[in-house]
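Translate sequence into structure tokens.
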Amino acid sequence: MKIILIPLIFTLATLTSFAQVDTNSSANLTFKGVPIYGTLNEYVSKMKKNGFTHITTEDGIAILEGDLE
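Result follows.
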């Protein structure tokens, strides 16, 4: 019985661990159609192309101004 039970437990544990992997994590967060990932400068550049104006960057926080509609 042990010979069958131990491989069965390992097989089930392996299969359930693969079910937990999020393969599309970079597309989860977006704002106005712009994905939020990468460096801050890359994101600010993409937002400028979307019509936002970059006001300032301070302590790793970028302040942008634009239309939210």
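Note: Residues 24-69 form one domain.
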